[in-house]
Specification:
This protein is α/β, with parallel strands linked by helices. The chain has helices at 12-28, 54-65, 86-95, 110-116, 135-149, 174-185, 214-218, 247-254, 258-261, 284-287, 294-313, 324-331, and strands at residues 43-48, 69-74, 100-105, 123-129, 163-167, 189-193, 209-211, 228-231, 269-271. It folds into two domains: 7-134 and 297-331, Aspartate/ornithine carbamoyltransferase (Rossmann fold); 135-294, Aspartate/ornithine carbamoyltransferase (Rossmann fold, 3-Layer(aba) Sandwich), CATH 3.40.50.1370. Helices cover 37% and strands 14% of the residues. The longest helix has 20 residues, at 294-313. It is globular and about 55 Å long.
Length: 333
């Protein structure tokens, strides 16, 4: 794998390999000294054309903990604000010797364009493009699910037999798309729950079930008992029309609150990619409950992104040879 542009780039073996390497990376983050020399001398550019907190800082922390040099680029305050094109920005980064470019862009397909146009020779990682995909978020979600539902010592395991509900603004969610693809690849069953206006055209061809009945899904009447429920942020900034009558009505029909939390099986966990609209798609009681993995997802994101950078930049051309997981055992004891 030279780039990571979509969750569909990973087959089962590839996805499990990323999760296994991420588990080794996560173990190193419990040490007093968290830094590894793995990517010393490499340069990682965070190329963000959209605002971000968790993803940008997570990638920056991941690269620095692998000893890479990091350049943070934001469109605001750069030549992009003066009209510079994506191509010219990419050529500038290439001239600076970027080994990997982590790109977030409002246009769906922008990372794919960077990877295939020949402007950049390094690895391209999609950190979210428009309403298309966000593959590293799906990986960190899968990593969190595997840790809670399969166990801490889950090396080599997938998510076969697990059922996950993804609830809310699926139409505008790149997280939902990537999660449906990756969770299906890992053997999990996925059910999307949303009002009809917030389900995309063609969702019937996605490898998942759909429902409009949140209470029925949480109670297990639609897809069987749930192992996890993932709430999605209502993306008001992408909405140019009225997709539901009111915020109060949306929360009443599709918000996760204390009452709905009690419908879940005792072992089921609550997830959210962040940032949250507390009181809209999720209540404070649900977000802060012992079932919630929302804060843990953030810390898991660093380990997963360390694994992705390691696999893309180190495994192919590092000093060791052999499968990436074996290289990880040598470099990350």
């Amino acid at each position: 794998m030279r780039h990571l542009l979509s969750a569909a780039d990973l087959d089962r073996a590839g996805a499990v390999e990323v999760l296994d390497v991420a588990a080794r990376m996560a173990a190193t983050q419990q040490r007093e000294i968290k830094k590894l020399p793995t990517l010393r001398g490499r340069t990682v550019v965070n190329l963000f054309f959209e605002d971000s907190t968790r993803t940008r800082i997570s990638f920056e922390a991941a690269a620095k903990r692998l000893s890479a040099d990091v350049i943070n680029f934001t469109a605001r305050g750069s030549s992009v604000s003066k009209g510079e094109s994506l191509k010219d920005t990419a050529l500038t980064l290439e001239a600076m010797g970027a080994d990997a470019v982590v790109v977030r862009h409002s246009a769906s397909g922008a990372p794919h364009r960077l990877a295939t146009a020949g402007w950049i020779r390094g690895a391209v990682i999609n950190a979210g493009d428009g309403t298309h995909e966000h593959p590293t978020q799906a990986l960190l979600d899968a990593f969190t699910l595997r840790r809670h539902l399969v166990g801490e010592d889950a090396s080599g395991a997938d998510l076969a037999g697990q059922t996950v509900a993804i609830v809310g603004d699926v139409l505008h969610s790149r997280v939902a798309r990537s999660n449906v693809l990756l969770l299906h690849t890992l053997g999990a069953r996925v059910v999307l729950v949303a009002p009809p206006t917030l389900l995309p055209v063609g969702v019937g061809r996605w490898p998942c079930a759909t429902s409009y009945d949140l209470d029925g899904v949480l109670a297990g009447d639609v897809a069987g008992p749930l192992d996890a429920v993932m709430m999605l942020r209502v993306q008001g900034e992408r909405m140019n029309a009225a997709y539901f009558p009111s915020r109060r009505e949306y929360s009443r029909r599709y918000g996760l609150d204390a009452r709905r939390l009690r419908l879940l099986p005792p072992h089921a966990i609550v997830m959210h990619p962040g940032p949250m609209n507390r009181g809209l798609e999720i209540s404070a009681e649900a977000a802060d409950s012992p079932r919630s993995t929302i804060v843990e997802q953030v810390s898991n994101g660093v380990a997963v992104r360390m694994a992705v950078l390691f696999l893309l930049l180190s495994a192919a051309s590092g000093p060791a040879s052999g499968p990436a997981t074996e290289i990880a055992k040598e470099i990350v004891p």
